[in-house]
Every structure is written in C-alpha cells, then in structure tokens.
C-alpha cells in the first residue's frame, strides 16, 4: 500500500517493504528521518538511530509527537503512510522547480481512459443544475419521469444511442415504399349495406392495426431500455450513484 510513495522517495525496496517486520520498520524510520524529513539535527538523531535499544519505542513515540503525527504508535500502517506523505511534501518543497512541470508517465492516458469508462462517476446528483438539465432532456425526449435522476439520465443515454445516432437517423430518413393492399382479402366482419362505407371501414381497420403495431414496438423498446438499466451491475439505484 506504500509502494508509490516509497518509489517517489527512491526507497531501495518499495515493492518488498514490510512495516510489520520490527527491524525493517526501525531501519526505515531512520532512513526516512536521515534522508527525507530531517526534522532533528544530525546530533539529535542518536536515540532514533539506536534501533537495537529497548528504549527505541519511546524515542520513536517522542519523534512522532515532535513531527505532529496524529496517530498512535500502535497504528503502524497509518503512521507510516502519514510519515511518507510528510516526506513527499518536503521532497517536493525542496525540489519544486524540478517537479512543477512534470507529468507522471501515462497519467493523462489513464485519466482519459477512466473518464471514458465511467462518464457518470463524478456527477453530483444533488446539484440543482444537474437535476434541471436531466429534467429538460427528459421532457424534450418524452421520457417518463423517475425519482432517481441517474436512472433518467441512463434512459436518455440509451434512447440517444438507439434512436439519435447518425446511423439511426440515416436509417429513419430512408424512404419506405408502401406495399399495395388488396382490400377484398381483408374481411370486415360486418356489412353496412353500402360498398363505399364498407371500403372506408376496411381502410380504418387497417390503419388501426398499423397503429397498434407501432405502439407495441414502442412498448418493446421501453421494456428493453428498462431492462438495460436494471441489469447494469454498475448502477446502484439504492445508493443513487454509478460505479462500483
């Protein structure tokens, strides 16, 4: 858990450091004070350097107080992490000109990848502007209102992907030639006594059937969209957030 900070400080064994090993831990504290923190004058570091002394824990506890470490001596991992953070800050302060323009290797790529993978991860769902924007989009796209604004935003995304992409718009824009319909093959089921009215009734029935089919298609699309939202393991509606 300390590998990155140890590497930044040029520690000789960042991957294998074990703070639970007493000897290794004491040597590490001496190295940290001698090389990075340098809170004591050289002549005042004798007790801390005497790692084989039975009094070393007391010397280390005093050292923690002197550097204003907020943790107790028993909280070893927290103490090590805090001391490493202090050392990194001091190291940066001593070499500010060297580090101010540097960029970690792959940092930009990693950041961009993370943003692309989880575009909703940093959204503040309680922000009034966010809620207003989602509601405006939902009204514009005629999407059913939901108490969870993230669910609404997810539904908006699905609709945009399926219906408003360039391919979807191009496909919808293509003209469709209607097929000729032979009215005599469609039985009306009743007779008005007037051939013209019978034909008009047949046409109305066919139009009604077409409307029912279109409605069923929209219902199926809505079901698919809801299932896609519910089945997404990265969306937790109870917590009101996206991401593991």
Automatic annotation (TrEMBL):
Pfam families: RLL (PF10036). The gene is Rtraf. This is RNA transcription, translation and transport factor protein. InterPro entries: RTRAF (IPR019265). Belongs to the RTRAF family. It comes from Mohoua ochrocephala.
